[in-house]
């Protein structure tokens, strides 16, 4: 009898444990898919458009392991010559959509880590990189823009949803600046 | 009377011509009697400065030390040892560093000048590139040159040449020689102890996060004769003997040098394998 009762008490516990494990798996999967949100963005402290604020922002950005959407937008707008033209994050997001960096209506949380896919798309748009056949047919998507930049040696091997570090973003924009000025060369040239 | 008129005409001519245009004046000839820099007595040191000789763009700043405020870079600004320079978009700063070096700090770069000193007969220059790109030219002026550029992953020693050094998070360290570069005029020491000498038109880099061996292999434009797995590469980096064997198998003449390995680079791309390693 005692063993019966202990069986009865164990059975619901086992069922509950299974449920808990299932819940944990769901939570783990959804957590793995979720993007990291940072406590704040560098631009919160260096929002100015003057040279000192821009360089302070750049220097602080190089210390970041992952760039937030707000920081990436701020840096890209400077690269596009539109630094200081948008007062707040919403305005920057709107400006980015107008320039075709992302689909209209896209709402990215400012402090969430930026996906390298949309950054690559923004850089390709600004540089006028048409890419290969697929990109010409389907348009500049993050996936193919990223492949294009990886192929040109402007980015390391990455996937579109990966985060990008501050140093990587600065390196990308520096090389992109050279390409735009016509003084850039394939970074891989001479090293193969 | 005729003599008086003649004198008046001569004296009056400059007045009639008006004030001289300084821009039209012929450039001053360098003083041929200026002696070249002389070596200091043994053990005596003289701290040198850097002077900004050209600024382009609007986002170039410098500060004397880490606690100072950044100030816009202007031509003729004098920078002491410990100064830092940073450049932004489409901006460059060119400096004369000490007596023998000229440095162009390219766009989006940050560099420090930890040491510029004449120590006896040696001109010692130490530069630290945090990120970005710089062109450096070191002249031979009769004294010994000891110039080094440190980056986060490699240190480059310059004996007297011109080159481009860059470091960024995508491609890591890169150094490129120029056609005027003499054999072994550029020496790159990677943090893992590998020493590479560059010759004209050669380049070396460490694409992060790839192992240094891959950079070393690319330095010599090695033909890929066999597959080396990543595990083998890691083992090879940890074990210089394995590295030496590996390169000897590929026909390169390499040798140990202190902590690492020295090897001769190719003297021309695609024209045979490396020559014998020489002394720096």
| Largest β-sheet summary of chain B | 17 strands, mixed
**Quaternary status:** heterodimer
Percent range of helical residues of chain A:
55-70%
Main pleated-sheet profile of chain A: none
Describe the structure.
The complex is a heterodimer of chains A (192) and B (280). With 192 residues, chain A is mainly alpha-helical. Chain A has helices spanning 2-33, 51-61, 69-79, 89-98, 116-127, 133-138, 142-151, 166-181. Chain A folds into 2 domains: 1-34; 42-181, no CATH class. Chain A is globular. The N and C termini of chain A lie far apart (78 Å). The model of chain A is unreliable at 1-9 and 187-192 (pLDDT under 50). Chain B has 280 residues and is α+β, with helices and mostly antiparallel strands. Chain B has a domain at 151-274. In chain B, strand 18 and strand 19 form a beta hairpin. Chain B is globular and about 45 Å long. Mean pLDDT of chain B is 67; it is low at 1-25, 179-183, 207-212, 220-228 and 250-280. The A-B interface holds A 51-52, 54-55, 58-59, 62, 78-79, 153-156, 165, 167-168, 170-175, 177-178, 181, 187, 190-192 and B 58-59, 61, 70, 72, 86, 88-90, 107-108, 110, 130-133, 168-171, 174, 176, 201, 203, 205, 207-209, 218, 221.
Question: What is the structure about, briefly put?
Answer:
The complex is a heterodimer of chains A (192) and B (280). By secondary structure, chain A is mainly α.
């Amino acid at each position: 009898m005692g063993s019966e009762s202990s069986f009865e008490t164990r059975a619901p516990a086992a069922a509950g444990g299974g449920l808990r494990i299932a819940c944990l798996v769901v939570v783990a999967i959804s957590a793995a898919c979720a993007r990291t949100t940072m406590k704040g963005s560098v631009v919160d402290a260096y929002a100015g458009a003057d040279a000192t604020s821009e360089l302070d922002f750049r220097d602080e950005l190089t210390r970041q392991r992952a760039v937030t959407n707000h920081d990436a937008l701020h840096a890209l707008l400077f690269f596009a010559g539109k630094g200081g033209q948008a007062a707040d994050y919403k305005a920057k997001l709107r400006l980015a959509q107008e320039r075709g960096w992302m689909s209209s209506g896209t709402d990215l949380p400012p402090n969430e880590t930026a996906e390298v896919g949309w950054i690559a798309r923004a850089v390709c748009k600004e540089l006028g990189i048409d890419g290969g056949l697929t990109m010409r047919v389907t348009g500049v998507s993050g996936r193919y823009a990223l492949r294009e930049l990886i192929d040109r040696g402007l980015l390391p091997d990455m996937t579109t949803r990966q985060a990008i570090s501050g140093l990587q973003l600065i390196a990308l924009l520096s090389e992109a600046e050279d390409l735009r000025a016509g003084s850039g060369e394939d970074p891989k040239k001479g090293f193969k | 009377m005729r003599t008086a008129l003649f004198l008046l005409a001569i004296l009056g001519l400059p007045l009639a011509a008006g004030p001289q245009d300084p821009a039209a004046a012929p450039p001053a000839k360098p003083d041929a009697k200026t002696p070249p820099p002389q070596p200091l007595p043994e053990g005596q040191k003289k701290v040198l400065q850097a002077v900004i000789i050209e600024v382009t763009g609007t986002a170039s700043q410098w500060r004397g030390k880490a606690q100072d405020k950044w100030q816009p870079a202007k031509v003729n600004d004098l920078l002491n040892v410990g100064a830092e320079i940073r450049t932004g978009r489409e901006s460059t700063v060119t400096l004369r560093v000490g007596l023998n070096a000229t440095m162009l700090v390219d766009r989006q770069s940050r560099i420090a000048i930890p040491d510029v000193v004449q120590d006896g007969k040696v001109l010692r220059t130490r530069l630290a590139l945090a990120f970005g790109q710089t062109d450096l030219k070191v002249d031979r002026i009769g004294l010994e040159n000891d110039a080094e550029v440190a980056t986060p992953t490699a240190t480059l020693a310059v004996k007297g040449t011109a080159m481009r050094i860059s470091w960024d998070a995508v491609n890591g360290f890169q150094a490129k020689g120029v056609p005027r570069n003499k054999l072994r005029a550029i020496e790159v020491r990677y943090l893992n102890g590998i020493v590479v000498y560059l010759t004209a038109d050669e380049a070396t880099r460490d694409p992060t996060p790839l192992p240094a061996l891959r950079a070393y292999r690319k330095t010599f434009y090695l033909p890929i004769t066999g597959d080396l797995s990543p595990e083998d590469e890691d083992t090879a980096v940890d074990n210089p003997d394995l590295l030496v064997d590996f390169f000897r198998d590929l026909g390169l003449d390499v040798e140990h040098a202190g902590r690492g390995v020295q090897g001769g680079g190719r003297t021309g791309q695609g024209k045979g394998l490396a020559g014998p390693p020489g002394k720096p």
